[in-house]
Amino acid sequence: MIEDDPDICELLECRSKARDMMLRPPRTAAAALELLKQGVAAPDLILADYNLPSGMDGLQATTLLRQTMRRPVPAIILTGDISTAALRNVALQDCIYLSSR
Fold this sequence. Notes:
Helix content: 40-55%
CATH topology: Rossmann fold
Number of helices: 4
Radius of gyration: 13 Å
CATH superfamily: Response regulator
Structural class: alpha/beta
Order of helices and strands: HHEHEHE
Number of domains: 1
Distance between the termini: 18 Å
């Protein structure tokens, strides 16, 4: 999970623990990539906020993580942006869109 909103992180962490899933919640794409490079994380699913801090959005982060892992990890993009452009961009990256609204 790559999410910068502490409330959403807490909610998703609680939900994942109830389902015996483990989340390692970096707050930025760069932090997620670093965990991957260090061998700390090898996700089976990517949950990423569409709008992330530090210049890389969730779609760009997902693409970079998939390229680094050399496999098409399923991804869910979390966003409140329901614009046509956002929906199109998510679909073009073979990701699932989940509205936070």
